[in-house]
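Hey, I was hoping to borrow your eyes for a little while. A protein chain has come my way and I'm curious about its shape. Take your time with it, there's no hurry, and the full record follows here:
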Amino acid sequence: MNTAVSVPTDRLPLDVERIRADFPILSTKVHGKPLAYLDNGASSQRPRAVLDAERYYAEHLHANVHRGVHHLSQVATDAYEGAREKVRHFLNARSTKEIVFVRGTTEAINLVAQSFAVPNLKAGDEIIVSRLEHHANIVPWQLACERTGAKLVVAPISQAGELEIEAYAALFSARTRLVALSHVSNALGSVLPVRECIDIAHRHGVPVLIDGAQAVPHIPVDVQALGCDFYAFSGHKLYGPTGIGILYAREALLAAMPPWQGGGDMILSVSFEGTTYNELPFRFEAGTPNIAGAVGLGAAIDYVTSLGLPRIAAWEHELLLHATEELSAIDGLRIVGTAADKASLVSFVVDGVHPHDLGTILDQEGIAIRTGHHCAMPVMDFFGLPATARASFSFYNTRDEISRLAAAVVDACRLLR
């Protein structure tokens, strides 16, 4: 009698060695040492499936989209719009009308700032952000405030790097017009309670934008379940190309927003007396888009989906635990950001060693990490630090690479102290 239990494939552990073979760059040698790429928070590597999709588009499909009756234009349009549908499904948006292709998270946030916030703000109005934000989710709102007389209100964080949710809730007033929060902190790895934050904002009738750049590569995102009004992410952090990103926005909000750039493809008719704008989402995609980037992003979504985000999250959590254990054992090393709910990222400082010097020494061992303020200077100011070293992990990283990191940090301390 066969008593074997069938385990669903979405619960099986990842075959990391097989996955690594899908990423040509991981076989690279740096200074004669095998590359350990631990800078995924800045930009992840691309699998062969994405590279092949971009190459196939360039070699066989390339033409401008939406504008031609010839064969290549039509198949390029199909590929481009097919990628939009993959994004819609990936985020569980209601319609492709809610999916706008942009250059990345930064452009998506700027689009909302200029097309949604500025027309709706007046002097004395307030925008709530958190102390954890990347500069891309601070500066666009500051620019909007400068133009309108509104002001930025900052939700505090704890010494663990967690959003102070009660203090956040207390910030709302009759003047609050928008909330903009990161889903996952790029500097600390803290996962914010965005569903709770959105619910609080909506009880006050306030819309919410979520910066999901650090979230979508690691955890499932369902924009309908979250209830967010805007959600932004970048392709290059999701194993896709640079120069492509997504703004999700609820259709009713997009329909009421004016275009923020003018040009081809965002119009239905143009005369010197006036212009009629195109339907959604095209009125927000002026000019020739990054077609190859969209195709590559679609391939990246296919690849990640084939692995399964729950399986990815499970392996990356194991890597996080291993890194936390190994690095915490190093004398004089302090992990910055100890939230109970963290993504696969460890930010740290070492007594007597500047992060930039540490990063340079690690590079000689083939280990790529990020050092600096991580475009999150308010976070560094909160902890009284000029910079940290940041190791950020992906599903293609291994426990051995993390052990190499820890050993190299110990060696660097001997050399630099």
Observations:
- The chain has two domains: 9-37+308-416, 50-305.
